[in-house]
Specification:
By secondary structure, the chain is mostly helical. The protein is about 55% helix and about 0% strand. It has 20 helices and no strands. Helix 10 packs parallel to helix 12 and helix 14 runs antiparallel to helix 15.
Length: about 575
Amino acid sequence: MTWQLSSFAIVLATLAFALWWYERSRPPARMVALVAALAALAALGRDAFAAVPDVKPITAIVLVTGIAFGAAPGFATGALAALASNVLLGEGPWTPWQMLGWGAVGLLGAAFGALTARRPSPLAIALACALAAEVFNLLLDLYTWTGTGAHTLAAFGVVLGSAAVFDITHVVASFVFGLAFGAVLLRMLLRVRSRMQVSWAAPAVGLLLLAVVLVPALGGGGSRALAAATAPSAARRAAAYLKRAQNADGGFGAAPGQSSGELYTAWAAIGLAAYGEPCRSVQRDGHSPLHSLRGEAATLQGPGDLERTILALHACGASSHALGGGDPTARLLASQDADGSFEQLSNLTEFGILALRAGGLPASSRAIRSAARWLAAQQQAGGGFGFAARTPGAETSDVDDTGAAIEALVAAGVHGAVVTRAGRYLLHAQNRDGGLPQQPGEGSNAQSTAWAIQGLDAAGTDVARVRHHGSVSPLGYLEGLTAGSGSVRYSRTSTQTPVWVTGEALAALAGKPLPVAPPATTTPPRANRHAPARAGAGAGAHRGSRAAASRSRRPAAAVDDAEAARASAAARALGALA
């Protein structure tokens, strides 16, 4: 067997093993779609610069993908980009070598991301791109060397010398591309990565980046009566729908019949627990959601995955400290920055606080106090919170993160003006149909409405009395989206990811802010969400005892003092987001 044939066989075997490894990691459909989209972007970038030899953005794109998503997605993106771009540039025996080379760039990105906690400076990204380009160059030079007659170091030196101009061009171009857009692309991909916990994952559609969703509290005299009558019925039907959608492995997919995923299983388990269904009693073929969650332990990556899983374990009454791959709470604590944030993102910090509370840390702990201080400082001029850190002069608040921020701050023992202003932001975002959008002015959706409801519940607002110019309450809006099957539609015009949407809506209909505590009994609660509670002060005041926090303490908002308070059935320690 010749040198060229032998090396070609080794490269093919390496590629086959790497792609098998990626497949064995069981990437969820949303990750597969994302890898395909990034590979297409990288291939398009390479083909667009076909007229300029070795000046290509593909190396920078693949490296940043590895930084953001890790080794397996990084390798797959690089390998697929090489294969796809050669459809235009020409396939040949060099293609597997290029696939391996750019796959290795993705692996280097993953290692670089681990070393820098996925927060490298723009200059560091550019330098890493240059280094990755040189690694790619050496692999392709090795391919050229295998085709020569003399396989000696001297012959390899000749190959390096003849390719020096092209190699240097590739290194310099990759440095420039990395400096030009590397940091911006990384922020975008980290946002996607985090929001994959709250993203639309329709089976044939690519990943849409969204983050956690909130639901507003609407209401009024008439809508309060409607909500009181319909919310229990909607919750009962939603719980029945979720139980019918359970898979044989105990988990849940985006829709009935689809394969289980940690994201959907976690949200379904949290919703059912909020309704009063213990996870261990929700079984299919002897498997509960806990079986599925534990089976997904090896796939958890980054704070977002850990936070959601901790909240789901807490809702299921399972220890959040024992899981395959290590203690998730300890891993989450280890990822916290010195300033208290998680990756400098409001979204991850909100969920981090809630997950740590679910993991047993008291509100007085240093980790939670520092996270709450950092989060409170991210409140924007309009009172809301955005996905990322606050940018002076920019208003990037959204309903989803504002609702989650209220839950997190209350769970951390923070009250007062910061919570009041956030509550008002949600109230002002309510639409005439009673629901809330992700961004004020957009159309309402069930998930954002659900998050707003939970945030307002945590703050103490009587959600059933919140209304916009005579509209129904947010609870009434969710009831109106309930289909005959019991599933909750995403919006008036969309039925995407029904299991996920229904799980989030069920927690809101049950009146349980995060973290959702495990049910005490197997009997779903039938507490009246609208019974009178302790009277409080005027609008803007927070009622209720922090120690015996009822499900809804009246926060600052827009309801009459006499009708301000409502009772909650059980006092739950606040603190878990999913």
